[in-house]
Amino acid sequence: MKHLLDFIIKSKSTAGGSAILTLAPANGAALPEILPGQFVEIKVEDSPATMLRRPISVCDVTPDGRLVLLIKPVGDGTRRLCALPEGARINILLPLGRGFSPAAAGERVLLVGGGVGAAPLVYLSSKLAEAGAKVTVAIGGRSAADLAGVLELYPEGVETVCSTDDGSRGTPGLITANEAFTRAWDRICVCGPTPMMRAVARIARQRNITCEVSLENEMACGLGACLCCVEKTVEGNLCVCKDGPVFNINQLLWE
Amino acid sequence: MGINLEVDLGAGLKLKNPVLTASGTFGYGTEYADFIDLNRLGGFIVKGTTLNPREGNDSPRMAQTPMGMINAVGLQNKGVDHFIEHIYPTIKNLDTNVIVNVSGASVADYVAVAEKLAPLSDIPAIEVNISCPNVKAGGMAFGTTCAGAADVTAAVRRAWPRHLMVKLSPNVTDITEIALAAESAGADSVSLINTLLAMAIDVERQRPYLSTITGGLSGPAVKPIAVRMVWQVAKKVRIPVVGLGGISTAADALEFIMAGAAAVQIGTANFIDPTTTIKVIDGLTDYCHRHSVPALSSLRGII
């Protein structure tokens, strides 16, 4: 069941140039159940340039029922959302889409994130760890500043490694060159820029590892009604908002 | 005071209120069932349906513009047989009017779809789309000449026994001529406007936002144009006019009604607030109370 709910911004912080908003449902409403990899759509008030809701992936859900979103200011809408003060009220459509597959006990899972794309991996890592999976998170960024506070979002007990283009933090170079990729994995989950996701998908395919990617096509309704956000798949065009955003790479027509 | 919002569009299409949803913005209704009681709607118009399945255009299919959006979906749908077998059984028992939007690349296509839908007794009306700007063949090509509009309308008229609504394109010099052509050819109502042919360019990447370069503009940005066209058409035709284009509030709907629309369709606003339709219906009732109007239809065409 999807909901249209008002939330109050309870606290704000930053990580790697993005805003982290912790939100509580207004009027004591309960937070609907959210699965890792699902997303929400936020209404941006008073902006003619941003008429449509902004899709934002769920970064985390706290034990006391709060929603944590990591928002990178990239356009008019996200800039306005990042600028909202604590106490502000925002209207959210949630939960949307299909997330990552649940974990099998003992499953070895590598989570790969790039920049703000790392956001949904936080919630995913805790849910996978909770289910008894062995989880490592590998985050790539341009520089240490890009990753400031990002690795710290992950729960204790989840191994985190990183790579930066300029070598200012972690291993120098692309995340796909990180040592973590040389280990044995049952599944790789990826969220980030498309070139990075495609590179990881190629590695997974070569090594016959199950791979799930989270896509970010431009979307409008978020409900599978308008068919604006489709991705070509082996089953024809599917809606990223409803049939995704998470897809197994075997569904996609990626090389 | 009880307020009467009922509308009789003729040829058996009676609405409990004038609020319909625009094709392509409301899926098959069920996508919105978590948010609203579909039975409260005057009706909803399902996604454009064609004879054969269509994959539609390549991504990207959508660009946001100030108070609007440009889409180039290109009539993606699984075809009329899929609708009849898999969708119709799930929506036919709703206590509202389920109207099917019909599209085609040739007159024969439109007729074939209408013939297949004709036995479905719980579909009181079809809306013939002669105005889609996002397909290479057919679509808008039929809606931009009087002869084309008349050909499609007359042919479908022979195949479809119940209410026949014809959806008009605004991408013409004089929309009233096309409306009159559809009326003469047997349409029971006309709906307008479909999207305006539009284009947006990403200057940083130096390329169009859409895979198809051009697409159809909808949303509040188009509303004043749509109100003007509804007003012009309503002065010319005798059949009911269904108005659409950028309606988000009851006041927007009232503009169309005062301009001459018997009913309205809500489209893009569903993407921003999935409860828009219900808010508009409740807002119309409130308006009638505030202005002591017992029957909303008395405001039709007062301008």
Walk me through this protein's architecture.
The N and C termini of chain A lie far apart (35 Å). In chain A, a hairpin with a 5-residue loop joins strand 4 and strand 5. Chain A has a seven-stranded mixed β-sheet with strand order 10-9-8-7-11-12-15, with helices on both faces. Chain A has a six-stranded antiparallel beta barrel with strand order 1-2-5-4-3-6. A two-stranded antiparallel ribbon of chain A has the order 13-14. Chain A folds into two domains: 3-96, Beta Barrel (Elongation Factor Tu (Ef-tu), domain 3); 108-214, 3-Layer(aba) Sandwich (Rossmann fold). In chain A, 14% of the residues lie in helices and 35% in strands. Chain A has helices at residues 76-82, 119-130, 144-147, 194-206, and strands spanning 3-15, 18-25, 39-42, 54-61, 67-71, 89-96, 108-114, 134-141, 159-164, 171-172, 187-191, 210-214, 230-233, 236-239, 246-248. Chain A contains four helices and 15 strands. Chain B has a single domain (7-56, 73-199, 217-299), classed as Alpha-Beta Barrel (TIM Barrel). Chain B is built from nine helices and 16 strands. In chain B, the strands form four sheets. In chain B, strands 3-16-15-10-9-8-7-4 form an eight-stranded parallel β-sheet, with helices on one face. Chain B has a four-stranded antiparallel β-sheet with strand order 5-6-14-11, with no helix packed on it. In chain B, helix 2 packs parallel to helix 4 (146-159), helix 4 packs parallel to helix 5 (175-184) and helix 5 packs across helix 6. The longest helix of chain B has 15 residues, at 276-290. Chain B is globular, with a radius of gyration of 18 Å. The chains are: A mainly beta (255), B alpha/beta (303). Chains A and B meet through strand 13 of A and strand 5, strand 6 and helix 8 of B.
